[in-house]
Design a protein that fits this description.
With 95 residues, this protein is an alpha+beta fold. The chain is built from three helices and four strands; from the N terminus they run αββαββα. It has one domain (2-87): Aspartate Aminotransferase, domain 1 (Alpha-Beta Complex). Helix content is 36%, strand content 17%. Helix 1 runs parallel beside helix 3 (75-87).
């Protein structure tokens, strides 16, 4: 899990519109959506179309529509997620 955290943290540093929330020690990462034109439901739905399953923060009490929760143990999910974010022309999640 430590190796996966390092991989994800490194990738997310270069992704415009998203920020990994520091300090998580659980088996998931909390990711903040900082792009003003996006919210967690839109990102959730677009990622789901691509086969990536994350938890929409608007469904989690205390978080809201600016956050996603992603299981750190799902390496294939993180690879797809990071690849998509890194190759997107903008944080709008255009196909």
């Amino acid at each position: 899990m430590v190796e996966m955290r390092a991989y994800v943290a490194d990738r997310l540093r270069s992704v415009k519109g998203f920020r990994m929330v520091p300090g998580s020690r659980a088996n998931f990462f909390l990711t903040e959506i900082v792009a003003p034109e996006l919210d967690s439901t839109k990102v959730f739905n677009e990622l789901l179309k691509r086969g990536v399953i994350v938890k929409d923060g608007s469904d989690i009490p205390g978080l809201g529509s600016r956050y996603l929760r992603v299981d750190v143990n799902l390496r294939s999910t993180w690879i797809i997620l990071c690849r998509h974010w890194l190759t997107s022309a903008s944080p709008k999640l255009n196909p």
